[in-house]
């Protein structure tokens, strides 16, 4: 019962924080038997929650730092989820003894259960995977060598689009499984260290294939800008297409970065992006001329949507908006690392909202009867959903009006930037036609570009 509640809570959290969660490659996840889900680790605890909610298997056991068991409420939740405490040598020094932790993990896997692990060892905000630790490979090979279970490792790529932003998007991609078969067991028994390192290398390559990686953030930003310019105006990208296009642009740039035309194009793109930033504009605002009446209709529609949502959102707004402000402040100001901003925002919200709901429900129930207290809590929950929808409509209205005003005020600059953009669009499509692999299917057709 407790496990079901925890799983439902985790799924609710992820569906609330992210506007869209796409999952591809679920056919690579075995329906039964022991599985080790090995993922990249760019977003702290949010990575584990997403894997738990979307991997298709339950329960999913994780290794967690032993210091988390110091907190009574968190300890109960971790025990209910079947988490296993580990003692990092970097924190515990010579006192770090994880033999019992590994034995517990062996028991979990040999019983046919699943384990989630992040082989990078730490959550980080780098533009690419960091070196993998060998623990994942060592566990998979040791369990298989004991002869009680056939282990499968499934690489899991967590690809965030604006990972810290509330109501953003994420793509979870499960890659081809790595089966620890008799050949791997034989190699492990012949030479443990070599087999562990080779399996770690195979896992690293498998994770590269399901994640977006670039040698540095400047290169990644260039690839994203080129992708925006290349995309046909009327096409809408799914998270999978978004990540796939970025991968292709990064990969082809790294293979052709000595090409003089490509280097000149990169300089022109970075100059264009710098000009946009100086004027406070976004590339999407220049894709096509803004016609007043269609823009006005969009603003009017979003305004009407806000009016419809307002009566539902008002009752809880006095609670939800301050909680949202506190959660955002906690995430941005008290985060020691860039990768845990989203986690801190969620923790702050989880800590505050249920407590406030219970206190208000208790007060209403004691004053007017307990059915009214229950109804108040239910009403606040509905109002919370309406508040989220209202904030999204408000953001859309704000950016639409802001765009319209800026484009009207900066007509000459915008006209020059549109000409510059049109030239860049022509250049990027010519470069793609010349440098791309002809054997790789295109995401867009000639019809997409011509329309």
Strand fraction equals: 5-15%
- The whole-angstrom Rg is 25 Å
| Overall number of strands | 8
CATH homologous superfamily of the largest domain? Glycerol-3-phosphate (1)-acyltransferase
CATH topology of the largest domain: Glycerol-3-phosphate (1)-acyltransferase
Overall helicity:
55-70%
The biggest sheet, with number of strands, parallel, antiparallel or mixed sense and barrel status, is: 8 strands, mixed
Q: What is the number of helical segments per DSSP (H or I, 4+ residues)?
A: 16
- Unreliable stretches (pLDDT < 50, length at least 5) are none
Element-level helix/strand string: HEEHEHEHHEHEEEHHHHHHHHHH
Our measurement of the CA-to-CA distance between the termini, rounded to an integer number of angstroms, reads 54 Å
CATH class of the largest domain: Alpha Beta
Structural class by helix and strand composition: alpha/beta
- What is the overall pLDDT average? 85
Domain count: 3
List keywords for this structure.
single chain, 451 residues, 3 domains, 8-stranded mixed β-sheet, 16 helices
Describe this structure in words.
This protein has 451 residues and is α/β, with parallel strands linked by helices. It has three domains: 2-209, Glycerol-3-phosphate (1)-acyltransferase; 217-281 and 412-450, no CATH class; 292-409, no CATH class. It is built from 16 helices and eight strands. The protein has helices spanning 2-17, 45-54, 72-80, 89-92, 99-110, 135-145, 182-190, 192-209, 217-230, 239-255, 260-279, 292-333, 341-368, 370-409, 411-435, 446-450; strands at 18-24, 35-39, 60-65, 84-86, 114-117, 152-161, 168-174, 178-179. Strands 1, 2, 3, 4, 5, 6, 7 and 8 form an eight-stranded mixed β-sheet that branches. Helix 3 (72-80) links the parallel strand 3 and strand 4. Helix 6 crosses helix 8 and helix 9 (217-230) crosses helix 10 (239-255). The mean pLDDT is 85.
């Amino acid at each position: 019962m407790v496990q079901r509640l925890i799983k439902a809570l985790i799924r609710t959290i992820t569906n609330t924080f992210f506007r869209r969660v796409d999952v591809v490659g679920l056919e690579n996840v075995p329906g039964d038997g022991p599985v080790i889900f090995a993922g990249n680790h760019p977003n702290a605890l949010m990575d584990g929650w997403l894997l738990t909610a979307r991997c298709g298997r339950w329960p999913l056991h994780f290794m967690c730092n032993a210091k988390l068991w110091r907190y009574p409420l968190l300890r109960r939740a971790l025990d209910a989820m079947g988490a296993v405490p580990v003692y990092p040598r970097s924190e515990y020094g010579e006192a770090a003894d994880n033999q019992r932790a590994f034995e517990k993990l062996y028991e979990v896997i040999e019983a046919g259960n699943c384990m989630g692990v992040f082989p990078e060892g730490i959550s980080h905000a780098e533009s690419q995977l960091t070196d993998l630790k060998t623990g994942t490979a060592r566990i998979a090979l040791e369990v298989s060598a004991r002869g009680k279970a056939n282990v499968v490792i499934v690489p899991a790529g967590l690809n965030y689009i604006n990972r810290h932003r509330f109501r953003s998007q994420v793509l979870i991609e499960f890659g081809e499984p790595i089966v620890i078969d008799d050949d791997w067991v034989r190699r492990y028994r012949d030479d443990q260290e070599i087999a562990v390192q080779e399996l770690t290398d195979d896992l690293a390559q498998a994770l590269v294939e399901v994640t977006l990686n670039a040698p540095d953030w400047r290169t990644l930003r260039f690839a994203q800008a080129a992708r925006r310019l290349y995309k046909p105006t009327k096409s809408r990208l799914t998270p999978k297409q978004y990540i796939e296009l970025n991968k292709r642009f990064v990969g082809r740039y790294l293979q052709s970065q000595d090409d003089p035309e490509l280097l000149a194009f990169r300089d022109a793109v970075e100059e264009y992006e710098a000009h946009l930033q100086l004027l406070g504009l976004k590339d999407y605002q220049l894709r096509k001329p803004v016609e007043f009446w269609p823009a006005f209709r969009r603003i009017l529609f979003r305004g009407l949507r806000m009016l419809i949502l307002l009566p539902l959102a008002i009752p809880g707004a006095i609670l939800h908006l301050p909680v949202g402000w506190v959660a955002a402040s906690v995430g941005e100001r008290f985060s020691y690392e860039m990768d845990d901003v989203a986690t801190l925002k969620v923790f702050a919200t989880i800590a505050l909202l249920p407590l406030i709901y219970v206190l208000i429900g208790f007060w209403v129930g004691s004053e007017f009867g307990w059915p009214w207290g229950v109804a108040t809590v239910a009403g606040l929950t509905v109002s919370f959903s309406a508040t989220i929808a209202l904030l999204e409509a408000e953001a859309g209205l704000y950016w639409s009006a802001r765009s319209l005003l800026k484009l009207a005020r900066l007509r000459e600059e915008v006209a020059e930037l549109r000409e510059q953009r049109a030239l860049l669009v022509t250049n990027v499509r010519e470069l793609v036609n010349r440098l791309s692999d002809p054997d790789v299917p295109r995401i867009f057709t000639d019809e997409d570009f011509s329309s």
